[in-house]
């Protein structure tokens, strides 16, 4: 009987309940709220659901996920050692059509202009007391590119990874709510009504050569993002080659789904109470919104300049798509444009700056790594 009681007491002593804190309870509540937003409200459910569940798992005391070998430690290893973001980029590349960008190359400038939000948030973070590496990792939220945000945070500010990832994916899901007011406030109805000329047909040769040339040029310029850009363009090459259907299908579907589960769950596993429930987390969420808003604004304003320069041929609304959230930002340009002119069709035109934004965010991340350097291990 005494042995039985000792065994029971041992189970109780080793249970998570004994080490459960108020912080753990709050983070589990945060996880449940994210599950609600994902499943009930439909905010990026494929990403927020595993992130939320990973957050709940991370706040169970005594699991040893980050110290003991196992599936969770492998997932965390993939997060912290730049494995999952490049694989996600391969799937993104396979699903991306660079045709609109090639048909209208000047839209590359719109994608570049929208990266202004990244550097505005970087300066804001430094003014609020973050060091330069932390500020750079926070600023990249403005690119609205979750994998790049995780990639840079893991290199420059791993202790802020959870907050940065949640902010990045949350604002990506809120694109239809955040962007339209900014777009309508800084454009006239006449500008929003502009109908753009049909894009030229891009040849198969151009589509095949582009990912190869782009990889070589950007990788030589910024070797630190070779993995991201290289996998993005390799995935695109799978699709555009015309003879790699099986590889393209795998990259777009099976591999993309598997890596999304691992990446998002691993992101949630970084959301421990002791590292997430801080003043810095609230500041990161605020700065992420600032970055996203300024990125949208910069894209729209540069679109207005382009409209003036080409005699009214460019609808400034497509500039907002330069923030990278593919293809949601391009769809928002389409919706806002059609409200001003029901016969307007901006989707394919907006896809040019939209895919340029993906490249632009990776280049911005590489520039920061080259200028500042990763955090010491």
Structural topology:
Blueprint: H1 2-14, H2 16-19, H3 22-39, H4 45-58, H5 71-80, H6 84-95, H7 99-103, H8 107-113, H9 116-127, H10 132-139, H11 146-156, H12 161-173, H13 175-185, H14 189-192, H15 204-221, H16 226-240, H17 245-252, H18 254-269, H19 273-276, H20 279-309, H21 328-340, H22 347-372
Helix pairs in contact: 3-4, 4-18, 5-18, 6-11, 6-16, 6-17, 6-18, 8-20, 8-22, 9-10, 9-20, 10-11, 11-12, 11-22, 12-20, 13-20, 13-21, 15-16, 16-17, 17-18, 21-22
Molecular structure report:
The chain is mainly α and about 375 residues long. The protein folds into two domains: about 1-60; about 70-370, no CATH class. It contains 22 helices and no strands. α6 runs antiparallel to α18 and α11 (about 145-155) runs parallel beside α22. It is globular, with a radius of gyration of 22 Å. The N and C termini lie far apart (about 50 Å).
Q: How much of the residues is beta strand, in percent?
A: under 5%
User: Number of folding domains?
Assistant: 2
How would you characterize the largest beta sheet?
Answer: none
The N- to C-terminal Cα distance equals: 51 Å
Helical/strand content category: mainly alpha
Order of helices and strands: HHHHHHHHHHHHHHHHHHHHHH
* Averaged pLDDT: 89
Count of individual beta strands: 0
Low-pLDDT runs of 5+ residues are none
Question: How much helicity do the residues have?
Answer: over 70%
Structure annotation, total helices:
22
Rg over CA atoms: 22 Å
The general outline is globular
């Amino acid at each position: 009987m005494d042995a039985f009681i000792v065994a029971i007491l041992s189970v109780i002593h080793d249970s998570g309940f004994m080490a459960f804190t108020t912080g753990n309870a709050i983070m589990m509540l945060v996880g449940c709220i994210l599950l609600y937003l994902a499943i009930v409200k439909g905010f990026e459910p494929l990403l927020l659901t595993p992130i939320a569940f990973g957050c709940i798992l991370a706040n169970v005391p005594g699991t040893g996920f980050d110290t003991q070998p196992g599936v969770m430690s492998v997932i965390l290893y993939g997060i912290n050692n730049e494995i999952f973001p490049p694989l996600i980029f391969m799937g993104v590349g396979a699903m991306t059509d660079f045709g609109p960008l090639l048909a209208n190359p000047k839209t590359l400038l719109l994608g570049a202009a929208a990266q202004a939000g990244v550097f505005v948030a970087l300066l804001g973070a430094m003014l609020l007391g973050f060091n330069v590496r932390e500020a750079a990792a926070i600023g990249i939220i403005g690119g609205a590119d979750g994998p790049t945000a995780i990639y840079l945070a893991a290199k420059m500010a791993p202790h802020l990874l959870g907050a940065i990832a949640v902010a990045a994916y949350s604002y990506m899901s809120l694109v239809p709510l955040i962007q339209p007011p900014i777009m309508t406030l800084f454009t006239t109805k006449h500008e929003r009504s502009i109908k753009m000329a049909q894009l030229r047909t891009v040849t198969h040769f151009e589509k095949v050569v582009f990912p190869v040339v782009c990889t070589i040029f950007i990788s030589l310029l910024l070797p630190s993002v070779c993995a991201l850009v290289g996998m993005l363009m390799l995935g695109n090459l799978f699709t555009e080659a015309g003879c790699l259907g099986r590889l393209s299908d795998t990259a777009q579907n099976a591999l993309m789904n598997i890596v999304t589960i691992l990446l998002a769950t691993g992101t949630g596993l970084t959301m421990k109470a002791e590292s997430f429930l801080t003043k810095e987390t609230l500041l990161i969420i605020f700065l992420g919104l600032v970055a996203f808003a300024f990125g949208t604004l910069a894209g729209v304003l540069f679109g207005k300049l382009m409209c003036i320069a080409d005699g009214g041929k460019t609808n400034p609304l497509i500039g907002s798509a330069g923030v990278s959230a593919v293809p949601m930002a391009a769809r928002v340009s389409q919706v806002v444009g059609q409200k001003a002119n029901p016969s307007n069709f901006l989707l394919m035109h907006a896809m040019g700056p939209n895919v340029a934004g993906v490249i632009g965010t990776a280049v911005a991340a590489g520039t920061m790594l080259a200028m500042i350097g990763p955090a010491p291990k």
